[in-house]
Amino acid sequence: MSALVLDGKALAKKTEEELSARVAILKEKSGGQTPILATILVGDDPASATYVKMKGNACRRVGMDSLQVELPSSTTTEQLLAKIDELNSNPNVHGILLQHPVPAQIDERACFDAISLEKDVDGVTCLGFGRMAMGEEAYGCATPKGIMRLLEAYDIALEGKHAVVVGRSPILGKPMAAMLLNANATVTICHSRTQDLAEHIRRADIVVGAVGKPEFIKAEWIKDGAVVVDAGYHPGGVGDIELGPLSERAAAYTPVPGGVGPMTINTLIYQSVDSGERKIG
Ligand SMILES: NC(=O)C1=CN([C@@H]2O[C@H](COP(=O)(O)OP(=O)(O)OC[C@H]3O[C@@H](n4cnc5c(N)ncnc54)[C@H](OP(=O)(O)O)[C@@H]3O)[C@@H](O)[C@H]2O)C=CC1
Ligand SMILES: Nc1nc(=O)c2c([nH]1)NC[C@@H]1CN(c3ccc(C(=O)N[C@@H](CCC(=O)O)C(=O)O)cc3)C=[N+]21
């Protein structure tokens, strides 16, 4: 039996059609003003530059604009905070994305938390995370929220299932675990100090790989019929999970590329349109 492919690329494309229509209405209601997502890139990491470019392109595909802020790698926390303040008070900017990671001298947490809640369409603030975790209204962190939207679109049942999330980073593993918990899954979070990782994964109905190491999670650890979500992305188009034989044994899996990545970008745009609509009211 071959597994169901959770096609994030196709879902993102389909959603973009709906978003284009919503952006057109938003534009009309605001007297022709194009909604804007501001992206901030600090330093010159080529992979980060590519991601930011992809986010700008996605904006334009749905009729939004992106305001691309580029700062040198020598930027200080104070300078970045000042830029974020400026974008917070720009009424035409509906969403702000600060690309992670920032250079080491910058206090990334302070800068994420300076983004105002209404513009935190990437879901990176402590306030947004806390509200989401408590089940209050907030924009979800883009990658885990994109994964939840993908699972929902394919009617993947989560309630009562055992989900194992490998990774606990602030913008991926930790919010992923909270979202799965809110969806009534039983959640295990594994990380670098976890003992017997393979044993935990063997018991999973749903596995989320968010480790940041190519093909670190082995296919043989994953049980037959599991749902396999690979958030990892590495050059050459490999994820954090060794997929190979799983495409036959799993119930469903996200391909790399074409799975989680496009849903991350789509969620960012989706939440920016939401933010614009809320302002128009
Ligand atoms: N497609 C997309 O949209 C996105 C993809 N990514 C990709 O997802 C992956 C993870 O990203 P991110 O969360 O930012 O990465 P981080 O490096 O911030 O986090 C990695 C996590 O994996 C854990 N870990 C590391 N080694 C092990 C190990 N040997 N056993 C178990 N757990 C381990 C770490 O544990 P500890 O906390 O103990 O250090 C940490 O929690 C990367 O491949 C990245 O490229 C990221 C964001 C978006
Ligand atoms: N504040 C912040 N928010 C983020 O969401 C964020 C971030 N920082 N820093 C870096 C990671 C990485 N990330 C990706 C987004 C899309 C793809 C993506 O669309 N990948 C395509 C392939 C792209 C290609 O062809 O190279 C795919 O998987 O199909 C990948 C990775 C978002 N991130």
Automatic annotation (TrEMBL):
<comment type="similarity">
    <text>Belongs to the tetrahydrofolate dehydrogenase/cyclohydrolase family.</text>
</comment>
<feature type="domain" description="Tetrahydrofolate dehydrogenase/cyclohydrolase NAD(P)-binding">
    <location>
        <begin position="142"/>
        <end position="277"/>
    </location>
</feature>
<keyword id="KW-0486">Methionine biosynthesis</keyword>
<comment type="pathway">
    <text>One-carbon metabolism; tetrahydrofolate interconversion.</text>
</comment>
<keyword id="KW-0554">One-carbon metabolism</keyword>
<dbReference type="InterPro" id="IPR046346">
    <property type="entry name" value="Aminoacid_DH-like_N_sf"/>
</dbReference>
<keyword id="KW-0028">Amino-acid biosynthesis</keyword>
<keyword id="KW-0511">Multifunctional enzyme</keyword>
<dbReference type="InterPro" id="IPR036291">
    <property type="entry name" value="NAD(P)-bd_dom_sf"/>
</dbReference>
<feature type="domain" description="Tetrahydrofolate dehydrogenase/cyclohydrolase catalytic">
    <location>
        <begin position="6"/>
        <end position="122"/>
    </location>
</feature>
<dbReference type="InterPro" id="IPR020867">
    <property type="entry name" value="THF_DH/CycHdrlase_CS"/>
</dbReference>
<comment type="subunit">
    <text>Homodimer.</text>
</comment>
<keyword id="KW-0368">Histidine biosynthesis</keyword>
<feature type="binding site">
    <location>
        <begin position="167"/>
        <end position="169"/>
    </location>
    <ligand>
        <name>NADP(+)</name>
    </ligand>
</feature>
<keyword id="KW-0560">Oxidoreductase</keyword>
<protein>
    <recommendedName>
        <fullName>Bifunctional protein FolD</fullName>
        <ecNumber>1.5.1.5</ecNumber>
        <ecNumber>3.5.4.9</ecNumber>
    </recommendedName>
</protein>
<comment type="function">
    <text>Catalyzes the oxidation of 5,10-methylenetetrahydrofolate to 5,10-methenyltetrahydrofolate and then the hydrolysis of 5,10-methenyltetrahydrofolate to 10-formyltetrahydrofolate.</text>
</comment>
<dbReference type="GO" id="GO:0004477">
    <property type="term" value="F:methenyltetrahydrofolate cyclohydrolase activity"/>
</dbReference>
<dbReference type="Pfam" id="PF02882">
    <property type="entry name" value="THF_DHG_CYH_C"/>
</dbReference>
<dbReference type="GO" id="GO:0004488">
    <property type="term" value="F:methylenetetrahydrofolate dehydrogenase (NADP+) activity"/>
</dbReference>
<dbReference type="InterPro" id="IPR020630">
    <property type="entry name" value="THF_DH/CycHdrlase_cat_dom"/>
</dbReference>
<keyword id="KW-0378">Hydrolase</keyword>
<dbReference type="InterPro" id="IPR000672">
    <property type="entry name" value="THF_DH/CycHdrlase"/>
</dbReference>
<keyword id="KW-0521">NADP</keyword>
<keyword id="KW-0658">Purine biosynthesis</keyword>
<dbReference type="InterPro" id="IPR020631">
    <property type="entry name" value="THF_DH/CycHdrlase_NAD-bd_dom"/>
</dbReference>
<dbReference type="Pfam" id="PF00763">
    <property type="entry name" value="THF_DHG_CYH"/>
</dbReference>
